[in-house]
Amino acid sequence: MFAFAEKYNTVLKVLLGLIALSFVVVGVESYSDADSPNDVARVGGEHITRQDLARYLGDKQPSPALRDQALEAAIAERIRVAHARDIGMAVSDAELAARIAGEASLQENGKFSPKLYERFLQAQSMSSSQLETRLRQDLLSQQLVVGTVGSGFMPQFNLDRYAALFGEERAVSQQLLAVEDYKSRVALPADAARKYYDGHVGEFATPEQARLEYVILSQQEQAKKIPISDADIQKFYEQNKTQLSAEQRKVRHILLSVDAKAGAADKAKVKAQADDLLKRLQQTPEKFADLARQYSQDPGSAMQGGDLGYVGRGMMVPAFDSAAFSMKKGELRGPVETQYGFHILALDDVKVQSFEEVKPQIESQLRSQKAVASFQGIVDKFSDLLYQQAGTLQAAAKEFGLGVQQSDWVSRNKAADAVLNNPKVLEAVFSDDVLKKKHNSEAIDLGNGNMVAVRVLDHRPGSTMSFEQAQSQIVAKLTLEEAKKLMQKDGQAKVAELNAAKLDSSTWKDLGRISRLNAANLPHDTVRALFKVSTAKLPAYVGVDSAEGYVVYKITDASAGTLSADKMVQLQQTLERIRLETEAKAYFGQLAARQSVEINKKNLSQMQ
Q1: Domain spans of the chain?
Q2: Whole-number mean pLDDT of the chain?
Q3: Backbone φ and ψ of 211, nearest 5°
Q4: What span, in angstroms and rounded, lies between the C-alpha atoms of 353 and 178?
């Protein structure tokens, strides 16, 4: 319902996910506002309420981590909207009305249905003015993102330069100086181990630890046990038939973007380019994907040959939507002008999903809805069993079909198991009731509809090894450190001698030809070192530390290479993502730094 980011402009989705959040750690003040008890934050003069935050959370359990993420998203949106208004951007009433009327789920027989609109508002507990305000803000945020960061592209000469770098190949062989071979040459002072122990006693301390058994109650797993009848599925289908069985079209497009501030002459120039491109496609339609990769300035779809997948009516901006849904299968259409530029469209397929096709989707949705509605009751019963039979987890496990798991040793601030490595869980483990009395913990909310309960099986207090216990360990550590120093000294001397053109009759292990993308499983730092070395004079040598020892590499040949079509696509996608991330963080980071952001920590903490 209301896919606010147009599907064809995939870059928008990427950027809306990236833009955040330098303001969360810089320039944020806290406040307590008795006059606004419902506020969780203020951005400039705009308030963010508990209800606003709940909208971002949706059906998710408001754990501290998810709550903070939702707040960051709300603040980011407020900053974007405020700046868009400051620079004169606006969403007209006509554009807003067109977006609502064009939403497929609010249509009957292809026309806007006031009845469906009212039903949607009631389901969301929103008034029409609240929805329109929210939608206007989302559209305004889109305009800003697409009109600033999303309008750029990676120049071809940059892509060619990177392709040359990643296509370069070097013939490499290696020799290993093993650290084990140097240990026998190490002679430690007699008091070295004692001095180390006295200066690092903390390294030999073992913290207080406990070993646990635990059960996890998952809303998702409980949902699988909820029966959904065919009658329920059929009823939901009939109530939402327009949305579920709406026609979908598989569309490709090529976008030639036009700056929002461009004049008539510049627009005409881009349109002429689009006209020429359409003529080429009409002569060779089978080359659409290749030309999309070459010319399209929508980075989200260009690398997929312009493919947008299946889209429903109303998912595009009006001009694009109108063209796409008036085409015949196999037809080319264009240039279609939108606020983003000129598009050339190709329609690959048309389909309408049958009841049998959407039945699994409906069943899953109904099961999830019932699980959300019933989960609090399940948690209450789970908590009661933990309390009533405090000396065992078996009763709760049996009632809800849960497996009782056991942990390794955990400390007050660390657990190897990700589920247990949670401050709330570890605090409960070392409470008197759980640790000393061996009672079950309360049900602990992990977020995302997951609860855990723990019980201590074993406990051992903290201790510190004596020098005598630690001595052999210390000697081994110091010996290894000194052996590495000797090894590195020899390795560096060998590289210097070889690069000075001294004769080399030693044996080398051939690694073949490697590139930055095909590096024979060599570590990233090693690959960087190998391609950093000048190949003006060959052979060239470089040394690199590794886990096994010091490795001396010999480069005997260097040549330009070419990337396959698939590798070129991957490279362009990666570079485009990096460009977008860099521009988005820089642009919106500056906006955030200029905004006054205040957080009401007291009100925020109460949203549990």
Answers
A1: 10-153+578-605, 169-203+467-559, 208-218+382-461, 246-352
A2: 83
A3: -115, 135
A4: 64
Q: And the tokens for 225? A: 């046990």
Would the pLDDT of 312 be above 80? no
The angle at the Cα of 603, spanning 597 to 605, to the nearest 5 degrees, equals 100
DSSP string, 56-102: HHTTS---HHHHHHHHHHHHHHHHHHHHHHHTT----HHHHHHHHHT
Place of tokens 């000797």: 486
Q: Which of these, 475, 538, 407, lies nearest to 195 by C-alpha position?
A: 475
What is the band of 6 on the pLDDT scale with cuts at 50, 70, 90? very low
Q: Determine the pLDDT at residue 37.
A: 67
Q: What angle do CA 98, 104, 107 make, to 5 degrees?
A: 85
User: Token pair for residue 65?
Assistant: 């981590």
Report which residue type is found at 445: D
| Residue 558: C-alpha distances to residues 429, 506, 534, 537, 567 (Å) | 59, 22, 10, 10, 20
In sequence order, what are the residues at sequence separation of 6 or more whose Cβ sits closer than 8 angstroms to the Cβ of residue 193?
A: 467, 471, 474, 475, 478
Instruction: Report the DSSP beta bridge partners of residue 212.
Output: 456
Domain 208-218+382-461 identical in fold to domain 246-352: yes
The pairing of strands 28-30 and 597-599 is parallel
Pick from 551, 507, 535: nearest CA to 170: 535
Dihedral in degrees, nearest 10, Cα atoms 163, 165, 169, 175: -150
Contacts 24+ apart (CB under 8 A), 578-587: 579/152, 579/154, 580/11, 580/14, 580/15, 580/18, 580/149, 580/150, 580/299, 581/18, 583/149, 583/152, 584/15, 584/18, 584/19, 584/145, 584/149, 585/18, 585/19, 585/22, 587/148, 587/149
Residue 127 and residue 134: Cα distance in Å, rounded? 11
Please report the pLDDT score of residue 244 as a whole number: 74
Residue 217 has pLDDT above 70, yes or no: yes
Strand ranges (E), 365-491: 405-411, 444-447, 450-460, 463-464
* Residue indicated by tokens 């081994």: 476
pLDDT, tens digit (0-9, with 9 covering 90-100), for 531-564: 999 999 999 999 999 988 999 999 999 998 788 7
**Residue 379 is encoded by which pair of tokens?**
């948690």
Any idea of the CA torsion for 301, 304, 307, 311, to the nearest 10 degrees? -70
Question: Could you tell me what percent of the chain has a pLDDT over 70?
Answer: 88
CATH number of 246-352: 3.10.50.40
Which residues make Cβ contacts (< 8 Å) with residue 292, sequence separation at least 6?
Answer: 252, 253, 254, 301, 302, 305, 306
Note whether 143 and 89 are within 8 A (CB): yes
Class of domain 10-153+578-605: mainly alpha
Check residue 149 and report its DSSP letter: G
Tokens of 602: 């007291």
Of residues 575 and 242, more confidence is placed in: 575
Using 50, 70 and 90 to split pLDDT, how confident is the model at 173? very high
CATH class of the 208-218+382-461 domain in this structure: alpha beta
- pTM beyond 0.70: the answer is no
Q: What pLDDT sits at residue 549? A: 93
Helix ranges restricted to H, 418-547: 423-429, 432-435, 467-499, 524-532
Across 510-531, average pLDDT: 91
